[in-house]
Design brief:
Layout lengths: L1 E7 L9 H9 E9 L1 H4 L6 H17 L5 E4 L2 H12 L3 E5 L4 H16 L3 E5 L21 H9 L49 H14 L4 H4 L12 H6 L4 H11 L2 H23 L21 H9 L5 H13 L4 H14 L4 H11 L5 H12 L14 H8 L4 H6 L19 H7 L14 H13 L7
Parallel strand pairs: 1-2, 1-4, 2-3, 4-5
Helix pairs in contact: 4-5, 6-11, 10-11, 11-16, 13-14, 15-16
Length: 471
């Protein structure tokens, strides 16, 4: 019998874990997690993600009977030393696709092989590898629809998920920390407000998936646009941490969904794949405009605007509701993500990278590929980007997608008594209506930070400047 180190990374689960499943078939398994901030550079996990990781590792360790070995530091040093100390003959992991992880993992693989240790890697995070859906000329797609329709759906269907290993015999490594030793929780316990909203861990992931499949997928195509309805899966943090696999979600959806609702849900999983493809082929995606002409875009510099956007104090209720949902729950409904993103980059003319960094720290589903690609999309500078003239109107977006105001009133309670006629434009409400609703503009709720029409015109002028010939 051999001893294989299974290195947990973004695959914190037992079900459909290709690396763990294979390792268990070959003999004893030494399960390891390494918090590697030393190689992550600017992409250390954000605060909300670290909170989630703490609870996810705690849950995983329980599933493994307390056998999970936890370390912190440079994985390039820790993993080879652990292999030598434990007498492991093989090391196995599921692949990660962030540029810094690819670079690090390549070094680790070479070091282990030089020491005579077998190294295997598996796909446990994606439906299709980033190098599989390519155009006929071998280049990566930069537009989603052909990527998904021609690139992905022409491939073999995603594999069926694997069961939990039946004969998983885990050995615990010596010298390990416990999960608390990673110091993932914040010193000021703001994370306590996140706890009621999530059931972190593999079991919670499956409960959330079944809740969505049984109650949300049947009206997904239309219902996903309305933040007060339960038609979004809320599976993104579980997928990001690998507490459930996309293969499990893909095939389970086929059992519960049908027609346009199933097709639309599958295509949303396809957007996740597209983001990973972009990050793999364009590794500067997190900080560099994919469309280089945006390098000369005249972004504004207004710290007050940024802070008021972050705190949900813009004076536009649907925007403020979204930003407060983010702070209180670590999540924003997808439709509202587009609204708050458009408002930041197009109405406030602030660089999309401000939004990317704030989301990175505040989202429990913060994912380098999705976060970067999505912010570049909304900023107009990425692949298949939203056209420059597509500027979400925060008033009409609220009126259309939260017509009764249920979502907005929940997160902006100071406006809960305002009639829906004025909920998204309280500055237009007559004085007696404001008084009766207990709203004092500039006091209990802020005046609008910018004028929608005027800021739209400024944005169009800024985007038009990119068309000017360069000297």
């Amino acid at each position: 019998m051999t001893l294989t180190i299974h290195w947990f990374r973004q695959d914190l689960r037992l079900t459909d874990n290709p690396s763990l499943y294979t390792a268990a078939q070959n003999g004893d398994v030494l399960p390891v997690y390494i918090l590697d901030d030393e190689n992550a550079g600017d992409h250390k996990l954000g605060g909300a993600n670290r909170w989630w990781l703490h609870h996810s590792l705690t849950s995983l360790n329980e599933s493994l009977g307390g056998k999970l070995a936890v370390f912190a530091g440079d994985a390039k040093t820790i993993l080879p030393e652990l292999a030598q100390r434990s007498g492991a003959t093989a090391v196995s992991w599921n692949r990660c696709y962030e540029p810094w992880r690819i670079e690090r993992d390549t070094v680790i693989k070479e070091t282990l092989k030089a020491a005579g240790i077998e190294v295997t890697s598996h796909n446990g995070s994606l439906l299709w590898e980033p190098w599989e859906p390519l155009k006929k000329d071998g280049t990566p797609y930069r537009v989603f629809t052909p990527y998904y329709r021609r690139g992905c759906l022409s491939q073999p269907e995603p594999r069926q998920p694997l069961p939990k290993p039946l004969n998983l015999n885990c050995i615990r490594a010596s010298g390990s920390l416990d999960v608390d030793g990673l110091n993932l929780l914040p010193k000021i316990r703001w994370d306590k407000q996140l706890e009621p909203h999530w059931d972190v861990g593999e079991s919670g992931a499956h409960k959330q998936m079944m809740s969505f499949m049984e109650g949300g997928i049947s009206d997904y195509k239309d219902g996903r646009n309305f933040p007060s309805q339960q038609n979004v899966s809320r599976l993104s943090p579980y997928l990001q941490m690998g507490e459930i696999s996309p293969n499990t979600v893909w095939h389970t959806a086929k059992e519960y969904g049908a027609g346009p609702d199933l097709d639309t849900f599958h295509s949303e999983l396809g957007w996740r794949e597209f983001s990973y493809s972009l990050l793999y082929h364009f590794p500067t995606l997190p900080w560099k405009n994919l469309q280089e002409k945006f390098d000369r875009f005249p972004w504004g510099d207004n710290p007050e605007f940024l802070e008021r956007w972050q705190k949900g104090q813009t004076g536009y209720p649907i925007v403020d509701a979204g930003m407060r949902e983010l702070w209180q729950t670590g999540y924003i409904h997808n439709r509202v993500r587009m609204i708050v993103g458009s408002f930041l980059v197009k109405n406030l003319l602030l660089d999309w990278r401000h939004g990317e960094r704030w989301f990175w720290d505040c989202l429990v589903d913060a994912d380098l590929a999705n976060n970067s690609a999505s912010w570049q999309w909304i900023g107009g500078c990425g692949a298949d980007a939203a056209p420059y003239f597509r500027i979400f109107n925060p008033i009409t977006q609220g009126q259309k997608f939260d017509k009764e105001g249920e979502y907005t009133r929940h997160f902006v309670p100071e406006l809960k008594n305002l009639p829906k006629k004025y909920l998204y434009n309280p500055w237009e409400a007559p004085a007696d209506v404001l008084r009766e609703a207990g709203v004092v503009l500039g006091d209990t709720y802020p005046h609008p930070i910018v004028h929608v029409k005027a800021s739209r015109e400024l944005a169009l002028e800024a985007f038009a400047s990119l068309k000017q010939p360069q000297p």
